[in-house]
Amino acid sequence: METTGNKSDSYYMAMAIRLAKKALGRTSPNPCVGAVVTRDGEVVGRGYHHQAGTPHAEAHALREAGERARGATIYVTLEPCNHTGRTPPCAQAVLAAGIARVVVGMSDPNPLVSGSGIRLLRQRGLDCVVGVLEEQCQAINRPFVKYITSGLPYVTMKAAITLDGRLNFARDQQDWLTGAAARQYAHLLRDRHDAILVGAGTAGVDDPSLNVRLRGRTGRDPLRVILDSHLALSPDAKVCTLASEAKTLVFCRQDAPAEKRKILEQRGVEVCPLALCREGRLDARAALRVLGERQICSLLVEGGAAVHGEFLRQRLYDEAHLLLAPMFAGENGLPLLSGFAAPKASQAPRLERGGYRRLGDDLLIHGLLRYF
């Protein structure tokens, strides 16, 4: 990693990061990328990648800069690509525009790029600086990095719980634990993920819509995924009847009742049989492989307890967002986890590189999962 460069490099890279964030949740299976072109201390071009199949950030920024790009510096959050996909290679566009200096936030982990864009630019005599605000650039593209290197989606745990770690006040009962601000945050998480997953118990008790409802703007509904071994899902459930561009995918046992499968499919639900793992449960890792094959880069898991426990047991979570309500539920409430137990504190999964935020009366605790 190279960290040399002018003092102003971090300022303009931060600007490019802010541009990239405008498309969070919209570029899959591509990364979020922002670009800024400067000349003589003036910003002459800005751009970001809007969605897969459309021009990349560099193309937007260079188009805005026009002739002023000749001899200028371009700041890009991700290494310019040097291969032809659905769009032309960005490294070639940078060369054609007459850019003199390139500042890159992070190298591209995509094997089709993997340093080739930077090498080409240097071979053609351009001054290239790599690694400016690298950690921040990596943070906005964690789902892309995991997907492009493993073929699996980046998995986020989300749960609203009481102070004593309960999901509700009684089993088989739906309860609103958090206030409006925390619920809006939860919908923002949905908006930024490609898919959202719950278990059959949550789908049956809560009958959730699993869509995005944001105040003041239109969100994008994620693919709805249900883990439902025996196809207990009602064909009248909201996930089967809701008007949305997003589809519903149900994973079930291979020997699930054929008649139930037929009824769900008649409602437009896709049913996908899976192999079983321990204790006759659906293999969650196999479900992730199927989603990865469908170019699902990010998955938000909202429970319930058995699902959260299984994903932790198999070390499938990459990140967690817990919304803590200032109340106690007591022993009748369903615990956050079932089917998982850490042997001792030194071997317990921990959150790191995260933080805390107050959302109304509730507290958000979030971070990356670290396993021992």
Task: Name the descriptors.
9-stranded mixed beta sheet; 12 helices; about 375 residues; single chain; alpha/beta; 14 strands
Derived from helix and strand composition plus strand pairing, the structural class reads alpha/beta
Number of strands: 14
Q: How much helix is in the residues?
A: 25-40%
Shape: elongated
- The strands making up the biggest β-sheet line up spatially as 10-9-8-7-11-6-12-14-13
Order of helices and strands: HEEHEHEHEHHEHEHEHEHEHEHEEE
Biggest sheet character: 9 strands, mixed
Cα distance spanning the termini: 27 Å
Instruction: List segments where confidence is low: pLDDT < 50 over at least 5 consecutive residues.
Output: 1-5
The number of helical elements comes to 12
Please compute the radius of gyration using only Cα atoms.
23 Å
In round numbers, the mean pLDDT is 93
Strand content: 15-25%
Q: Could you explain how this protein is built, in words?
A:
The chain has 372 residues and is an alpha/beta fold. 28% of the residues lie in helices and 23% in strands. The chain is built from twelve helices and 14 strands. It has helices at 9-21, 57-65, 90-97, 116-123, 134-139, 142-150, 180-191, 200-206, 238-241, 258-266, 284-293, 305-313; strands at residues 34-39, 42-48, 73-78, 101-106, 127-130, 154-161, 195-199, 223-227, 248-253, 270-274, 298-301, 319-324, 350-359, 362-370. The strands form two sheets. The chain has a nine-stranded mixed β-sheet with strand order 10-9-8-7-11-6-12-14-13, sandwiched between helices. The chain has a five-stranded mixed β-sheet with strand order 2-1-3-4-5, sandwiched between helices. Strand 1 and strand 2 (42-48) form a beta hairpin. Helix 3 (90-97) packs parallel to helix 4 (116-123). The longest helix is centred in the N-terminal third of the chain and has 13 residues, at 9-21. The two termini are 27 Å apart.
